[in-house]
Write a structure and sequence with these properties.
Elements: H1 3-8, E1 16-22, E2 28-33, H2 39-51, E3 55-56, H3 58-68, H4 71-77, H5 83-94, E4 98-104
Organism: Neisseria arctica
Pfam families: DUF2322
InterPro entries: UCP019302 (IPR016755)
Length: 105
């Protein structure tokens, strides 16, 4: 399925203003706002939070990459163009364990 088709299957994010990703010390290392151009990523990361009990690890990252679908190849050839996909690559490659914190509006 395409990214847009995958998004259609994910839970609503109408109640969110953003999502923070924190390290083990509680520091916010990545932030996804509810803003134009970021809503798809916010919806995807929120779905990861729900499915993986707010944990972003290698397994969750692999699943997230599958949901980003056709955008993954572009992210691989253009590092920095898709920071939300780049983070999933990093989590998977470095076997990180981060925390997903959806922020209610």
């Amino acid at each position: 399925m395409s990214f847009q088709e995958n998004l259609a299957t994910l839970p609503s994010i109408d109640h969110l203003s953003s999502l923070n990703i924190t390290d083990n010390a509680g520091n916010v290392i990545h932030h996804i706002p509810a803003a134009p151009g970021k809503l798809g990523s916010l919806k995807l990361y929120n779905a990861l939070a729900e499915k993986f009990s707010n944990t972003l690890n290698a397994e969750a990252a692999e699943y997230g990459l599958s949901l980003f679908a056709e955008h993954v190849a572009d992210a691989e050839t253009n590092p920095g163009k898709h920071p939300n996909i780049d983070l999933l690559f990093k989590v998977k490659q470095e076997n990180l364990n981060l925390t997903l914190q959806p922020v209610n509006a």
